[in-house]
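Question thread 4412

I'm putting together a teaching handout and wanted feedback from people who do this every day. The idea is simple: show students a protein as raw sequence, then show them the structure tokens that encode its fold, then repeat with a second protein so they can compare. Below is the first pair exactly as I plan to print it.
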Amino acid sequence: MTDPKNDHPETVRLEPEQPETAQPAAVEPDVAPPEGEPPPDGSRGQGPSSQRTRAIFAGLITVAILAVLAIAIFDSGSDDDDPLETPATVVDQVATTGGDTNQQVVAGPELGSLSVTGFLCPSSSIADETCMESGPVEILNATLRLSDGVTMQLAADMRQENSSYAWLNIPVGEYVLLADGLLGPDGAPARDVAGASGQVEDGWIIANNDPNQPTVLQVFFVPVEDGEAAG
């Protein structure tokens, strides 16, 4: 038997299909990787640690280059171990020969000097110590004859504040202080030269062998009317 309530079939309501709407993809926030770890993609970052490494490496290269240059300069300088030879000293002196004054070039490996002081004695019989009590006097003229025959003249501007004469730039060796022309105040001749190593016919032998120490000479003059020059 049929149920009268079910004579009518069920009505099915069909809802229209809604088109699917594409949802936007979720955007992940940028998150920096922890310090000391590489980025997720596997590439190395350019952080402060990498820059510091490059700076240290560049500094080491610079130090190595400077060390190589220093070694090269040292090696090139050490090849020349022999000191340069010093040429012989050449000194221009005024030489007087036969009354004519000419410029002479005196060559010598070493130069010395003389310290000359003059004293006037009241008479030829007075002791040297007594003559020195009156103090130094002016030397009007003095002439050296070197071993090669060249003569050198004592200049007035060589006189020092203590009234002694600094005779400079004289080649070391032995020479003669000529008696002829060795004159003190008012043309007083010399009777003796203390400090000379000997005496020859025409003067006194002067030994000047130490270039660092002047030879000290003391010339004693006597008045013209009291005596004649030695030699």
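The second pair follows. I'd like the answer to focus on this one:
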Amino acid sequence: MTTWHSDTCGCIIDFDDDQILPNGRFKVRKVIQQCPDHSTPDISGHDDLYDTSLGDNQRKNVLLGKMLEAHPELADINEAGGKVLKKDIDYIHSYTGKGKNRVLEVEFAGPNFVFAKKHKDKIKEISDTEFGAGKVVVK
């Protein structure tokens, strides 16, 4: 059993790492805490809560990874050879809305970094392709 703490909301969920559902997700054993943003009628049951909360989390992470691929000036290479965000650039993210209608708001900022139109356009392109129109807003 694993306890998962979302970093995009206050949900805390225990899941069974030995039971994988047909959708590829782990079977939820227990919801320890359901945050107010996910306490909505459009979320039905523990597995739906986990899928929705995990989807929010993955949207934030996938977008960052694709931005690092598309714009090498945002990235450094770590010891393992992977791309990471440069130390002097911040990936600022938050969510608005509730339930399955949460919208990710993002921007990049830093003392020597200009959040240019090319970055904003790429975020929109990636977001619309990966998640559908309206799921990510550029600040």
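Top answer:
Good format. For the second protein you could add a caption like this: The chain has one domain: 2-138. Residues 2-138 form one domain.
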